[in-house]
Amino acid sequence: MLLVVLGAVLSVLGAGTAQAAGYRYWSFWEGSGTGWAYATQGPSLVRPDDGSVQGFRFAVSADSQDAAKPRRSPDFAKICADTPAKGGTKRVALVIDPGTAADAPQGETPPPSRTACARVPEDASSAEALASVAKPLRYGSDALLCAISGYPVAGCGEQVSGTTGTESGRATASAPTSASASAPGSGGSGGGGPSAGVLVGVGAVLLLGIAAVAQARRRRG
Fold first, then answer.
1. pLDDT in tens, 27-37
2. Whole-angstrom Cα distance, residue 103 to residue 25?
3. b/e 189-215 (16+ beta carbons within 10 angstroms → b)
4. d(Cα 40, Cα 1) in Å, to the nearest integer?
5. Contact of 135 with 118, CB cutoff 8 Å
6. Pick from 101, 70, 71: nearest CA to 164
7. pLDDT band at 65 (very low <50, low <70, confident <90, very high)
8. pTM of the complete model beyond 0.85
9. d(Cα 189, Cα 116) in Å, to the nearest integer?
10. I need a surface site. Which of 25, 74, 126, 205 has the fewest CB within 10 A?
11. Dihedral angle, C-alpha 178, 179, 181, 185, nearest 10 °
């Protein structure tokens, strides 16, 4: 009986994870040593210091923990080697990674990844640094960054089914926002776990199993 209950629980959990979806969007990263840290604010709010490295990666991700990082290292010395310091300005190294063909919208091919060194005013934001080297940029109505250097041509934060890249509609309120720069479902749970409905179903299955075991014991008694 317990094995039957356990099998039912696992089947319910499996159904919940099978329905997980991701979003196709440009994620924003900040260089941290030799690696990358997911930005906690959008590029329009971050004002990087001279010598900073900022990264942008286009991919399908379910949440910030699942988001794909830029595939180049945040090497400021290498990226800005030919851009000397200048008074009244700052240098921000940028890594722009359009991702892979698997994550590209239907009919589009991602351009090669590249780096650039932006020399901008001292009070410039990351968005302004990006605009100085990677036009044209395209933003959504909520100021969400939709395209860098014209890629992708259309769309902005589309929800896709699983990781197949098949569009299933527009992103919902849990999609990435320009204010937080967070991937969908990044409110601490990772976004890929069971939903509230799934947990309720698990609880119901467990209660039924406990009742069945108790009834069987009474009959044997």
1. 999 999 999 99
2. 9
3. eebeebeeebeebbeebeeebeeeeee
4. 48
5. no
6. 101
7. confident
8. no
9. 35
10. 205
11. -100
